From TrEMBL, chain A:
Localization per Swiss-Prot or TrEMBL: Cell membrane
Record flagged with keyword Transport: yes
Stated family: Belongs to the binding-protein-dependent transport system permease family.
UniProt source species: Nonomuraea longispora
Alphabetical list of Gene3D superfamilies matching this protein: MetI-like
Residue ranges annotated for the ABC transmembrane type-1 domain, each copy included: 23-225
Protein name, UniProt field: Amino acid ABC transporter permease
One annotated GO molecular function: transmembrane transporter activity
Transmembrane spans: 20-47, 68-86, 106-125, 145-167, 206-229
Domain of life: Bacteria
Membrane topology: Multi-pass membrane protein
A Pfam family hit: BPD_transp_1
4Fe-4S is among the record's keywords: no
From TrEMBL, chain B:
Similarity annotation: Belongs to the binding-protein-dependent transport system permease family.
Record field: transmembrane: 20-39, 51-72, 84-103, 149-171, 183-200
UniProt entry tagged with the keyword Transcription regulation: no
Gene Ontology MF terms in the entry: transmembrane transporter activity
Keywords, ordered alphabetically: Amino-acid transport, Cell membrane, Membrane, Transmembrane, Transmembrane helix, Transport
Protein name: Amino acid ABC transporter permease
Keyword Cell membrane assigned: yes
GO biological process: amino acid transport
GO CC aspect terms: ATP-binding cassette (ABC) transporter complex
Organism in which the protein naturally occurs: Nonomuraea longispora
Membrane topology classification: Multi-pass membrane protein
């Protein structure tokens, strides 16, 4: 087949605009899931490192969340959100205001991906928090700052800097994981490539195009993350040279 | 509950397929991963660079694209693989790139003195690697390897998209046949995966503690 | 009127009793040096004063408040007590000035420019105004500890606690930190200092308190204590520290 490659199926319209549209969907999913999982992951990590005896049930719940969602395949979770949760009228009604912009499949995919990635971000950040020396929290408390104020001003900035290489890996994983949403009918890059493939039988061209799009996005993302890591770590641990995320890390 | 019990034999039959997929892919990934990881750690650029290319290329790809690639493109190239074997190849090769990085890091963590001592006794580079360095590196790598294998088990669900009739594929079929019981059916699938993977990770941790003791 | 008062204070970690009924009072303006062998509970006692540790029994009154009473606002109480750690614990992601300004801005809601002026005055006092905009890691150990003292002073505390402030320092830097502490003692600050610097204890302390196995074994003026410690344990301790 390599002697009659037909790159025009991906380089010319309609294939090209299919793929570009797919790329735009994938990119939105990635960015929104990264933002969402950073917020949720931070809250979960903070809950897990809390020490108040009254919060023990919360800690148990959060560690159950982290263990459960990391040990169940993303695909299973996405199907659950899309065919389970989004089959409920209640959920559909709640999502209705967003439907002019985002389909229910997209929202289910985003929700699933965010919740899945949050569990990993939470673990990375938790170990970051635990590697900030105890004396830092104590010094801030001794100055009269409350627990949350001390966490926010003193511990979290350092924890983020220390955990950022690991968190960055999770961002890259999340970006690659956006591709799984094609299985629930979101029109991402891979979905579009599959459309092209089934219309033209040009499998090599279609999937290579999808691959190239992902490689480009992930490379750009790693380059960006490497810059952030360098900026962060030089402040917190000037002596330490940490490996920056390299092109494509976790899956 | 009836939804589950009535379809239990049908769904559980898929677990056997999933297990075969996982075991074969783990074996393939382990062989390739150790090989490429050792190459990645070699002194010679001629050996090292192809390994780096292999690792970087595969790690830049989302697994789902890789699976579609293996299935459709390999058959275009004349390797007519069944969906099952395409799945084994895709999962095995894909995971091997991640294992290779772990193996490389493990090898790098063995002190140089170990190399020097072995080479000083007259052992060749390959023998030193196989008999002195790798066994030590493997011990350090164990936790990372286990989490990579658990990832592989989760990833077997993805080959349902090329039509492998493994566990999750059967769950989805059951789900769309029943139509009214998504929570029970998908919840059941989630719990199965959780029990399997969480159990495996606890087991591995116990084993590690025993080895350390 | 004592500013710190311990009555029968007990503290244990599980089965390990670390404080075994401590009675101790410190009056305003007094400089107390805590001595004792390693593991005798000196740090624990110090950390109980500003509630970095909670206690298992007895009562503590600091500045008229009980740090272990639920009704006490701990943040307010801690603002009135400065704490200097053995390992400085400066915030590595903030400049020296920011380290000093954090608590005044966040707790006392002092405007940034006023806090900055205050930070500069404190740096002047500890002798390193030129380091205001450096990061802690760019400073020597002695300079870092002086910043930590300035940081503790930023909240205008009535009491300053020091937990082995010179133990992590290279010998040539000990003096510069001790000088700041001597100066502080001279200004009338109430201080409780855990240290192995016997010279400092002799010259600056109003009173030496010797602890062993979670108890206060001896409490005396430094001259008396060093000349003739009345207990066997203290004699042995002094023999050991003065012969190394
Ligand atoms: N968080 C903790 N958990 C359990 N035991 C502790 C804890 N902190 C301190 N201890 C124990 O309490 C005892 C007293 O400790 P403390 O730090 O108060 O001694 P110290 O007199 O300051 O000794 P040093 O001169 O070594 O600093 C020690 O036996 C120590 O091991
Ligand atoms: Mg101590």
């Amino acid at each position: 087949m390599f002697n009659d490659l037909s790159w025009s199926v991906v380089l010319d319209d309609p294939g090209r605009s299919f793929l570009l549209h797919g790329a735009w969907v994938s990119l939105q999913l990635a960015v929104l899931a990264i933002i969402g999982s950073t917020v949720v992951g931070t809250l979960v990590a903070l809950g897990r490192v809390s020490t108040a005896p009254a919060l023990a049930p919360l800690r148990w719940l959060l560690s159950a969340y982290v263990e459960f969602f990391r040990n169940v395949p993303l695909l299973v979770q996405l199907v659950f959100w899309s065919f389970g949760m989004f089959s409920l009228d209640l959920v559909r009604a709640a999502a209705a205001p967003l439907n002019p912009v985002y389909s229910n499949q997209f929202l289910a995919g985003l929700l699933g991906l965010t919740i899945y990635t949050s569990a990993y971000v939470a673990e990375a950040l938790r170990s970051g928090i635990q590697s900030v020396p105890r004396g830092q929290l104590e010094a801030a408390r001794a100055g009269g700052l409350g627990y949350w104020a001390a966490m926010r001003a003193v511990v979290l900035p350092q924890a983020f800097a220390l955990a950022f290489p690991a968190i960055g890996n999770q961002y890259i994983s999340a970006t690659k994981n956006t591709s799984v949403v094609m299985a629930i009918g979101v029109t991402d890059v891979v979905f579009q490539a599959q459309q092209i493939e089934s219309a033209t039988f040009a499998a090599f061209e279609a999937y290579t195009a999808a691959l190239v799009i992902f490689v480009v996005i992930c490379l750009a993302e790693s380059a960006l993350l490497a810059l952030v890591v360098r900026g962060m770590l030089t402040r917190v641990r000037p002596g330490v040279r940490t490996a920056a995320p390299t092109p494509a890390l976790e899956s | 509950m009836g939804a589950i019990t009535d379809n239990l034999p049908f769904m559980l039959a898929g677990l056997w397929e999933t297990a075969k997929l996982a075991v074969l892919a783990i074996v393939l990934s382990a062989v390739l991963g150790v090989l490429v990881g050792a190459m990645r750690s070699a002194r010679s650029r001629l050996v090292r660079w192809p390994a780096i290319g292999y690792i970087q290329l595969i790690r830049s790809a989302p697994l789902i694209v890789f699976i579609l690639y293996c299935y459709f493109v390999l058959s275009d190239l004349g390797f007519d693989l069944t969906p099952f074997w395409a799945g084994v190849v895709a999962l095995g090769v894909f995971t091997s790139a991640y294992l290779a990085e772990i193996v490389h890091a493990g090898i790098a963590s063995v002190p140089r003195g170990q190399w020097e001592a072995a080479r000083a006794c007259g052992l060749s580079q390959a023998i030193t690697m196989r008999d002195v360095v790798l066994p030590q590196a493997l011990r350090r790598m164990a936790p990372a390897l286990v989490s990579e294998f658990i990832k592989l088990i989760k990833d077997t669900s993805l080959v349902s998209i090329i039509g492998v009739f493994e566990f999750f594929h059967r769950v989805e079929v059951t789900n769309s046949r029943l139509l009214t019981e998504p929570f029970a059916v998908l919840g059941f699938a989630a719990v199965c995966y959780f029990v399997l993977n969480y159990g495996l990770s606890r087991f591995a941790r116990r084993l590690e503690l025993r080895l350390d003791a | 009127m004592p500013i710190i008062e311990f009555t029968g204070v007990r503290k244990s970690y599980g089965d390990l009793a670390v404080l075994n009924g401590i009675d101790l009072s410190v009056t305003e303006g007094e400089v107390v040096v805590l001595l004792g062998p390693s593991g005798s509970g000196k740090s624990t006692l110090l950390r109980c004063i500003n509630a970095l540790e909670d206690v298992s029994g007895g009562t503590i009154v600091v500045n008229g408040r009980d740090p272990h009473d639920r009704a006490t606002n701990l943040n307010e109480l801690r603002s009135g007590v400065g704490f200097v750690f053995q390992h400085f614990n400066l915030y590595p992601h903030m400049t020296v000035a920011q380290n000093i300004m954090l608590a005044p801005v966040r707790v006392k809601k002092l405007p940034k420019d006023a806090a900055r002026r205050r930070a500069m005055a404190l740096l002047e006092r500890v002798g390193i105004p030129e380091k205001a905009d450096s990061l802690p890691t760019q400073l020597s150990g002695g300079q870092q500890q002086r910043v930590a003292i300035a940081r503790a002073l930023a909240m205008d505390p009535a009491i300053m606690l020091f937990d082995e402030p010179t133990s992590a320092l290279d010998p040539e830097m000990i003096q510069e930190v001790l000088e700041v502490m001597v100066d502080l003692a001279g200004s009338g600050m109430t201080m409780v200092v855990v240290t192995h610097e016997m010279g400092f204890a002799r010259k600056v302390a109003d009173r030496v308190v010797f602890m062993d196995a979670g108890r206060v074994v001896e409490s005396a003026a430094p001259d008396d204590f060093f000349a003739s410690p009345s207990t066997e344990r203290a004699q042995e301790f002094l023999r050991r520290v003065t012969h190394i």
